[in-house]
Amino acid sequence: xxxxxxxxxxxxxxxxxxxxxxxxxxxxxxxxxxxxxxxxxxxxxxxxxxxxxxxxxxxxxxxxxxxxxxxxxxxxxxxxxxxxxx
Length: 86
Known about the structure:
By secondary structure, this protein is mainly alpha-helical.
């Protein structure tokens, strides 16, 4: 990958990470959602995304996006569920 292309990838990843951690309602792509949920590996994120109860995604532009606040609520519920099972 040429230097200019790598710079574009680095900037996109930085902006995605910023969107994941900033307060407020926004839509995140799978990379941002995985970062928000604890820097999950792509395969782990896909496993969660296909599970029952995971927030639904919406098609925006060319990709699928998840609402940030719905992901946070799901993570809180999942944490509570796992704590109750322990």
